[in-house]
Design goal:
Helices cover 36% and strands 15% of the residues. It is α/β, with parallel strands linked by helices.
Length: 308
């Protein structure tokens, strides 16, 4: 198998590369790539222009301001790229806000390297796209057999969920909130995750980008379950801003609140990463929606129930 120098500027791609057994070929990562933990030792090739640790509303304001000036919200270390001289850079064209984009990479590479560098861009919109990306990378990097084996394992895990839910007819309405201020409902592959796990997604459509919603729309839908999964936020970070939700007029009257079915998931490690652990995310959602049927062991780390 040909050895290549790979830089991944997308956390999901980093996870895919490692799951395919190619971590030894990684020579650089983005500032967000943190799994598996061993990749943290790699050179960091990017940074965010907005201030880390800012509130949800402040991050949204900064991002809007940067994008309004037709600028990228990420900076790529060109000198580091030049010194590493990668053979492959993996990035994405799915969201300019979520991670370093294809446009950012193309601009940075212009007349930078003295050799050809292949740029692989991922653009998943749904679950099938995520699994196709894993297959695509496996084929391009010469480990097609490993990729096929991984996908078989994922299919088996999903089939277990399908089998256990075969005779369960009750399907609760589920709202997954991807950003707290302003409110956003998770789109793309999240509606499919909810459906596989035995729920009915509300205020969203599969394969479409996450959308802003008003609290009045959530009140009108009055979901049975509300899952908070802010993009990039671990559970404790979301808990720091939970008051945003608690102080909404009418929050306590929601069916999900009344029935104690408010959950917080790790929106950094799961759900928002379009890599191998999207299957873990499906299992987490199954645990949340149908707790009597499923116990995969994620509670306490991957998700918690929030008691008002």
């Amino acid at each position: 198998m040909q050895e290549r120098k790979i830089i991944s500027l997308l956390p999901a791609a980093t996870e895919i590369i490692c799951a395919l057994g190619l971590e030894n070929q990684l020579v650089g990562r983005s500032h967000e790539c943190d799994y598996p933990s061993t990749v943290k030792n790699l050179p960091v090739c990017s940074s965010a222009k907005f201030l880390p640790g800012s509130s949800s509303s402040e991050i949204d304001r900064q991002v809007r301001e940067i994008l309004s000036e037709s600028l990228s919200i990420y900076t790529i270390d060109k000198e580091l790229l030049r010194s590493i001289a990668p053979d492959i850079i993996i990035t994405q064209a799915q969201c300019e806000v979520c991670a370093v984009s294809l446009k950012d990479v193309e601009l940075s590479l212009s007349n930078l390297l003295e050799k050809d560098c292949q740029v692989i861009s991922l653009q998943p919109q749904g679950l099938s796209d995520i699994y196709s990306d894993i297959e695509k990378l496996a084929n391009q990097l010469g480990v097609a057999t490993t990729g096929a084996y991984l996908l078989e394992l994922f299919e088996e895990r999903i089939n277990i969920i399908h089998h256990k839910l075969k005779f369960i007819t009750e399907k609760p309405k589920v709202a997954c909130i991807e950003w707290l201020s302003p409110l956003m409902i998770a789109g793309n592959w999240t509606p499919e995750i909810i459906e596989i796990a035995g729920g009915v997604p509300v205020l969203t459509e599969k394969g479409t980008h996450s959308a802003y919603v008003s609290f009045e729309e959530i009140q009108k839908e009055d979901p049975d379950i509300i899952v908070l999964m802010p993009c990039g936020f671990p559970v404790d970070r979301t808990l720091q801003e939970i008051s945003i939700m608690l102080e909404l007029p009418g929050w306590s009257a929601l069916r999900a609140v009344q029935q104690n079915r408010i959950y917080i998931t790790d929106g950094n490690q799961y759900f928002n990463r379009s890599g191998p652990r999207i299957t873990d995310s499906i299992e987490i959602m199954a645990e949340i929606i149908n707790q009597k049927q499923f116990f995969f062991g994620y509670e306490g780390e991957g998700w918690i129930r929030f008691n008002n």
